[in-house]
Design brief:
The chain is an alpha/beta fold. Helices cover about 35% and strands about 10% of the residues. The chain has a single domain, classed as 2-Layer Sandwich (Nucleotidyltransferase, domain 5), CATH 3.30.420. Strand 1 and strand 2 form a beta hairpin. Helix 2 packs parallel to helix 4.
């Protein structure tokens, strides 16, 4: 990206973004409005992988970092797996929200996408016409990890930061975006592969450092979080780079606990 293009993106997008984040991201996206499933959308359950279809999942396991998995199809360059950068991602729905954010910021913003998730909470959170039901948040079956201060404050901050950031990305998407609710762990190919990638990310050393966990991460272009450079890349229309914890392995099979997945993943 040349300096002139970078300057244009900063002036046209990032400066207004700071204002939008300070005032709260508008609930009605200015770009192509995303579509959300109705409560009885049965067609989503028969979803199959395709060029615009992306399956996301989050993984939370006691004693390990949370992980995210994004799966498009066999060998797709945008398939992605990584650990999350903060212990505040302490429940499955928060990890799944992070996975949606990862999918959004890595997908070309001028290309259509259909996001498939097994979390109704995430869909409710990002749908401006519905309010999330806080007490239905799906926790890990293991005791939930808490933030460093021993309270749920860190998780709440991460939820707010991720929601704002994801809604901002939806606002700036220039192509059709739709959400589909799928049933988890019932043999859906895309969901199962995303689940596998999330587990891989959880046990890997690769961290998705661009996922914001606090308001400071959102507002500071020079902080520890790398989401501002990723946002510039997203606004330029380029694809996400790399596949995180998915590495070239010469066609070898995935070995549990190895943090490696064959290129066909």
């Amino acid at each position: 990206m040349n300096p002139l293009e970078t300057f244009r993106l900063v002036v046209v997008y990032l400066l207004p973004a700071l204002l939008a984040l300070l005032l709260g991201t508008p609930s009605s996206p200015a770009g192509a409005s995303p579509s959300f499933p109705s409560s009885n959308d049965a067609n989503a359950r028969r979803a199959q992988p395709g060029s615009a279809a992306v399956f996301v999942d989050g993984s939370v396991t006691q004693g390990k970092p949370a992980g995210v998995g994004v799966w498009y199809g066999v060998g797709h360059p945008l398939n992605f797996a990584a650990a999350l950068p903060s212990p505040t991602f302490d429940d499955n729905n928060l990890a799944e929200l992070a996975a949606v954010f990862v999918a959004l910021i890595r997908h070309p913003r001028n290309a259509p996408m259909k996001i498939h998730t097994d979390s109704a909470y995430v869909i409710q959170t990002l749908n401006p016409d519905r309010s999330p039901t806080m007490n239905r948040c799906r926790r890990s079956s293991s005791p939930a990890r808490r933030s460093g201060d021993g309270s749920a404050a860190g998780s709440a901050a991460a939820r707010r930061a991720l929601t704002r950031a994801a809604r901002l990305l939806l606002r700036w998407r220039a192509a059709a975006t739709s959400f589909r609710k799928v049933r988890g762990h019932v043999g859906d190919v895309g969901n199962e592969r995303a689940d596998r990638l999330a587990a891989l990310g959880s046990r890997s050393a690769f961290v998705a450092a661009f996922v914001p966990a606090t308001a400071t991460d959102l507002f500071s272009p020079f902080g520890r979080c790398a989401w501002w450079p990723e946002l510039l890349r997203f606004l330029s229309g380029e694809d996400g780079v790399g596949r995180g914890a998915i590495v070239e392995s010469g066609g070898a099979r995935d070995v549990p606990g190895s943090g490696r997945l064959a290129t066909q993943g």
